[in-house]
Request: fold
Amino acid sequence: MERLLDLAGAAPAAPPAPAAPPAANDWFAQAERTGAATVDVRPMLAEGRDPFAAVVQAADAVPPGGYLILEAPFDPAPLRRVLAGKGLMSQGRPAGPGHWRICFHRDGGPPDDSEIGLPTLRKPGETWREGDVVHIEVRGLVPPGPMTAVLRLIEAGAAQEIVVHHDRDPMLLYPELEERAWECVRKTTHGDEIRLLLRPIAD
Reply:
C-alpha cells in the first residue's frame, strides 16, 4: 500500500492523535469523564418544590476528589456559598437561556466549622428570632419568592422589626412595603449579602 501511495505521489496518512485528557482545571470535563451525578432542579422549581434538601443530600454523597453537576435556571450563588461551607468548591457557566450548569468539586474532606468560624447556614425562606427582631433568609428563593416571603411575614403580624437577608436590592419590594405602612429604615452590605431592616412607618 505504501508503495502505491509513493507511486501516486502521496504520503501515507498519519494515524489519528489520541484524544487529550481533560484539563485539570476543567471540572465539567472531569465530571463527565468520571460519570458524576447530576441534579436538575429546574423541574422541581417549575412544580413549586424546594430542591434544597435534594441538592444537599447529593452534595453530602460526593466523595473526596468527586464531582456533582447541578442544572439550574439561574446561578444559585447562595447555594454555592452553602456548599462551599461543606467543602465543595464550584465552577458555573451559562448553558443557554434560563439554564446554568454548576460543577461542584470536593478536593478534600469537609472543613471543620468550628475551626474556620462559618456562620450558621440557613435554608432559603427560613425565619428565626434574635431578641425582638425576626430575621428571614430569602437568598436562594426564585423570584418573586423573596418578596412574597417578606410580605407574608409582615402580614402575619408577628414582628415589628424584620431583617431581610437578600442577595440584591429588591426595588419592587419598596412600593409593596409602603402600601402596608412599612418601610426600609436601614440597608447594609456584607460581602455579597444585602441586609434590610424593615419597620412599620412611624405615625
Q: What stands out?
A: Residues 27-116 form a domain with the Translation Initiation Factor IF3 fold (CATH 3.30.110). The chain has two domains: 27-116, 127-200. DSSP finds eight helices and nine strands in the chain.
